[in-house]
Structure formats: structure tokens, C-alpha cells
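Interim report, section 4.2 (structural modelling).
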Amino acid sequence: MEKVAIIGVGYTKYAQNSPLTFAEMVFEATTKALEDAGITRDEVDNVVSVSSDFWDGRTISSMAISDASGAYGKDITTVEGDGTFGALYGMMRILSGSFGVSIVCAHHKGTESNMNGITNCAFDPLVERKLGLDAVSSAALQARRYMSKYGLLEEQFALVSVKNHGNAKKNPIALLPMDITVEDVMNSRKVADPLKVLDCSPVTDGACTLILAAERQAKKLTTNKKRVWMKGVGHCSDAFRLGDRDLADMRALKKAAKRAYEMAGISDPLKEIDFAEVYDAFSYMEPLWLEGLGICDDGKGCEYLERGWFNADGKFPVNVSGGRLSANPVQSAGLYAMAEAVLQLRGEAGERQLDGVETALVHGINGMCGQSHCVWVLGR
Amino acid sequence: MGKRVGIIGVGQTHHAAKRLDASGVELIAEAVSRALDDAQLTIKDIDAIVIGNMDHFENINYVDMWAVDGLGACMKPVFKVTTGGTTGTTVGACGYYHVASGLFDVVLAVGWEKNSESDTQAAISTCANPTLERDPFAGAIGPLATEYSMYMKAFGATEEDAAMVAARDRNNALRNPYAHSRQAVTVEDVLNSPMLSYPIKFLDMCPRSDGSCAVIFACEEKAKKLCPKPAWVHASVVRHDYTHFGDLEWKFMPTLERASAAAYKLAGITNPLKEFDVAELYIPASTCGVKWMDSLWFCEHGGAPALIRKGTFEMDGELPINPSGGVISTNPIGATALIRIGEAAWQIMGRAGERQVEGAKKALATGFGGCSWSDVMILGADLP
Amino acid sequence: MSDWKDDVEILVHEGKISVPYSWTVGSTLSRFYCELRDNGKIWANRCPSCGTTFVPPKIKCINCYEEPHDWVELPGTGTVETYTVVRYEEPSMHPRKAPFVYGVIKMDGADTGIVHFIGDVDPEQVKVGMRVEAVLEDEREGNILDIRHFRPLA
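Predicted structure of the assembly:
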């Protein structure tokens, strides 16, 4: 199969109440990504934007970033969901043979809107929406289910928060670099048991752009150092209603991961992959997703977390960027995670650079409680 | 290079002003079940799914997740694409790229809308920039009316030319059992219908409908095995150029000109009027059915009225347009452009029933959306 | 960046998308809600192919994509599979004041859970595995809030 490379990344610094409009944020991220790739807009033949009418408070919100994303006169389309799905569509369009170089851009201005109200609209207006559920309260149901299924403790989840906020101290764009302890998390304000404020990610503004290129174009346009290959990808959705699923059963993620690993030729992800950026919108999610990703056995995520496996200097570093717990621009979070993996693989991650990394795992989610997952394997 | 892709099944709901009997998810299930039946497949044969609609018409966030029951998408890959009025063609193109990429063999593309559930024009108005244009911008009709006024002045087109398009599409719908609005009308009826926004009158304008459409795309190997006469995708192209409304070109349709020119080049079309056997075009108002014919390269700028007056685009004309009755007869917005692709595919597959254009071998489908978004898909009976 | 940006006063325009909605409930859920409203009964439906019983009822089985034709009445009792005590206020969204409890209740006679409030109990006393029963409103309108909440079985 033909190969697709990420040849450029660009993003805005995470912010709250950014003075930029979301179109200006997209322009900044896209301009930086083109500079990073060392190409001009003329060398790009199509654009995939990631946009949500809900978060943007605007119908057909992607038309508002058409010019900012460099799409004038080009083939442009829009994915609604996490950026990892936008990148998947960008890759598909190149593999189809119709395009050579794609811009994939995502933006999110969480501080302009009401997160609870918007995620409440992800629930069926005919059933659960009337109950007032949202992303936070449903995540709390999942966290509790995960705890009771495997006998886990809130303190174990708190450790994720301690680790990731600590990692953020080495990431110059992170929003919440913090030196905190398990006690700090445990004593933070209760939101929806078992979740406390420090188990939750902050509302964040940010735009991120990737430049993708088919192998031939990638080799023509850039140096070897710049290229990171999209080696495998898989996505899969579970059932919609929370009660239709066992919220601690990662069957959809397992299926998505299996597909990504098969495509990338990976049989033992823990051995063959060097680090991961997973979607830790809430602390408990990190160990849960790592189980679904096959990095550890079901129910063992917290145990390995405690043993330090997922620390920056551990056996399998996870969310060295500080993760979504340190900045979570929902729609663009997955693209930021991919951009972070690209920097690590290129050896450009500054103070948080991991040694000798060749292969990365990136994960994004759609829907409530990770109904749908997109799993990427990226490599040098 | 990517794989060749064929359409092997199409399903759509019976569209109506208000489908009280079916929730959004039930409407989606209806279209999906019919597409599976049309292709003689079960949901197990589907490798991936793509869906689209417009968020603010039903106020469902993460529609791809919410619709899983109706889509049959539980434990399958699914995501959402959306681009306003062109959402249907965007969904179709996405289904096509899923398969052409080689990542999936059989893919279901679904568009839907339940316009009866909200105030369509209020929702559309929110597409305008909130700090510059939202207050003075009023829904979809105004801009279309403005562009036709300019076209009439520039090229001598008339209100009657538009009325002929409206009468053509509305009468064609009488042969389409799925169409929402099925009533015989004359050119006079159209001209005498209430003025909405000069020069657009009530019968010139599309309705808003409840409905869903599903189209199944398959790779060459599977399509040949599963379908006696697949509709092969020869080209899929999109162009879009909005910044502010004031920046748009009004006398012709630049994005449609560019999109169709690029698509014709890919499909090897040099004389579209001669080479296409049938077209299913996203004509939201009859006025567009005049002006935009120039931009599809059927004639020089300003040449459309003459073609229309000759009956070129009637069922018995040189290039029948919208045998289904088109958007003017049926408009569940997120599905509307996918219906164009589905109807065009049925024409190629020979499954268009009473509205079949005999021996159709090459078909053109388009999508249009706010603002100034143009999609073109070309289908053929022969392998591309 | 040019330095005029350091001095400019940044404005914010407040706005709200106010579009009215009326959602068609559809045949399947209408039947569920009519039974609830008129007869005070909680009905589920069952897939003829795999036998899975769904509450709230489904238009299509999520495993087989068959129509779950068979309807069954549930006793209204169940077991708390998971829960959360919500402690933040969102008055335009929450039908009751915090703190209150959401739970996923695995209903007896069904294979799926239903999300609802757990009430008539001190929030701190709710436990996973607790047996509960549905409490219905006296005046019912044909929506999910016709079930007031689930309460611990005596």
C-alpha cells in the first residue's frame, strides 16, 4: 500500500479566552504548519477541516475557516469530531490517489461556549437529555463502573493527574503545568463522584494543523528528518446508550487498536511501540484506554501506573505532553496529540524529548464515555 | 493509485414535510434498510459507515454516535462529515474515498435531515459571521434572489425562464414515488404563486423535508461480484470560496465552474451537454436552474435561457435534468445532495422506475450549499 | 506581530442560538412512553434473532440489525450498575438541584441498563449492586421523567 507522511505540524499555544477568533487561530496554526513543512499553500491540493457547529455556535462553521485554512480554490471538506478522525480522512483522500498533499486543521474555542450545555446535546433528546446528563456526569458513571469492576481506588486515578500535570511543566504550550500530589487531587472540589476538579481537563482554546503528503510528494518536498509516517490506523464505535454498554468494557477500542496494529505490522504493542498520547479528558480514562489499547491487561492499568510504567522515564511513557488534563481543546485535541508524537519522533520535543523513540501510539475519542475511538500508529 | 469504486445500492425514505411516524434514527434506519435491500446485502457486509447532516436543524451533537442504532454501526467504524447544503455530496464523496483508499471494501454513506423539527431559516441564519453579518443576513432565499436579479439584468433572462425550470422539476416529481411535493404545475402557476423575495416566488423555491438517503459504495472486485450493473464513480470534486458574503461573485457561479471543469477533466468529458445522458442537479431554486447551467459548461455565460426555452433539459430533451423532481420537490437538507448521487446511480443501474432515462450511461450529480460550496460527482456505466 | 495589538481593546459579543425544536418521538419510543404514561408500565423489546432485551426499547437490535418485534413488560426493579453524585449546578439543564444521583440501572428482565436518577436515599448511601425499583410520577406526560427516579428496594 502507498504510504502517507506527516510533513509539517503547527499549532497555537493553548489558551483560555484567546483574543483571536477561531479563524485567526486556524490561520496561525496552518501558517506555522506550512512553514514547518517548508512548503507554500500552492503545493497543497486539498483541505480537511475539523469543525463543530455546536462548539462554534455557528451553522456550517467550517465555511468560516475556509480562507484561513488555505482552501480557496481547493477541494475542501469537513469532519465533525476529534481531530484524529480528520487526520484519518486526510489520509484516505491521499490513498485514493486523488490528492498528493493535504492540510488537516482543527480548532476549538471552548471558552466561548458552555461545555455542559453542548455535551448535554450529545444525549438523545427523546431519552437521556431531559435528565441533564453531560460529558462530566456521564464520565463519572464510567469512572465508577471501572472502579467497581476491578476494585480500583480514586487515589489511583489521582496519580494520573499528578503525573500528567507534572509532565506539562516541560511543555511550553501547556495550560496547566502543576506540581501536585495525590492529596491535592483528592482534596480538590468534588464535581461528580468519583471525579474531582483535578480529575477533569480544563476548557481550552486551540487550533492545530497537520500537513500530510503521499510518499512521492513527501520525498520531493521535505527532508527525511521532517517525515513521520502514518503506519496504521483503526476506528470503531460502540453502542450509543450508556446502558447498552458495559462502560468498563473496551471492546470498541480493542477492535480499533487491532486494526491499527495489523496495518502497522505490530504484534506486541508494548514492546514495539515506544510511547503514547491517549485521550485523558478525565484522569481515569488513561489507564482504561491503555487497557483497551492492549498496553496492559484489563483491570491492570492502575497497577502499572503505580509502578511507574507510564512516567516519562518509565517503561512506556504516556502523555509526556501533559495530556488533555493539562489542556483539552476538544475538537483539536487529537491533532495536538498527533503533533506531539511527530515532534517526539523527529527529536524536536525540547525538554520533554524521549530517547531513541521510533514508534508512537496516538488515540482520540468521539462521543460520550469514549463511544468511538480512533487509534494511530506513527513511526519514523 | 487508488481503487476503482462503484455504487451498488441506494435507499431512500418516502420524503415528506413532516414524518411524524418516524424519529430521526428511525428515518435513518428506513433508508439504510432499503439500501441494503437494494444491494441485497446485510449489515454484516458493511465495513464502514459515514453519516452527515446539519447540527442546528435537529440539535443533536455527535450525530454519528447518536445514530448508531439506525445506522447499524455498533462495533463498526463510523464518523461524521458535514458541509451545510452540500453535506449529502460530502457524505457521498467520503464514502467514495473510504473505498478508493483501499482501507474499506464496502461502505455505507448516509445523509438525513428532519427539517420539520426546527426553524430551518433561523438555523441557517446562524451560518453568517456573528459579529459582522448575522444580523442583516436572512436565510437562504435572499442571496439566491439577488444573484438571479443580476443574471436577468446581465443576460436578459426572465422570470418565466425560471418558472419553466420549476414546472419541469415539479412535474418530473409526479413519476417519483419518494418525492415530497408531487403536484402538476404549469409555468403560469409558478409565475402566479406568491412572491417570496423578488424574483423568486413560492413555487420557484425548494421546500424543507424530512428524509434520509443511503448509498452503498464498493471496491471494483466486490462491486462486480455483488451488482449486475454498478454505477462507477468517474470523478468527485469540491470547490468552495467563502470569506464574507460581499466577496462572492454573483453573476456566475465560480465554484461550480471550477468544480465541474476539474471533474470533467478527470472523467474525460469535453462536451458535457452531449456526453451526459442525465443529470441530477442540486437546484435549490428554479433561478439557479437557469443561471448555473452556464457554469456547468453547457453553454457560454448567458446561454442558458435559450437552452431552457428549447426544452433541452426536459425528459425528452437532449439532456434530461432532475427526472426525480430535484431539490424543488424534495429537500431533507443533509440528504438532499446524496439523493442526487443516489438518483444518478439508479439511472446508470437502470433502477429508476418510471423516471428512468433509457440507456443512461453517463450521469452528472451536483451538490450546492451555503455559502458558495459546489460539489460534482460523475457516474458511469463503464469502468473509469 | 505588530504592536498595535498590545493596545487594542478586545471586545466580546454575547450571543445565543435560539432555535425552537420539536422532536418526533417515533413509533418505538412512542409506544414505550404511551405505556408508561397511560398504564404506568415499563416495556422493553426483544430481538427475535439474538434474544437481547432492550430498555429503553430499540428500533433495531444493535447486534443483529433486526427489528426487535417482541414486547415484554418489565417488573420495574433492577440493580445499580454504576452511579455518580452530581455536585455542580446547571439550572437550565438539571431537573433537580445538586447534590443528586444518576445511576445506570440494569433492569430485571432486560439485558441493558437504563440511565436515571436514584432518589429517596441519602446520596452518600448509594452503592453499586444496590437493588432498586422505579417510582413513577402521578401526573405523567409521556417522557422519561414520568419515571421520577429509582429508589432502594425495601
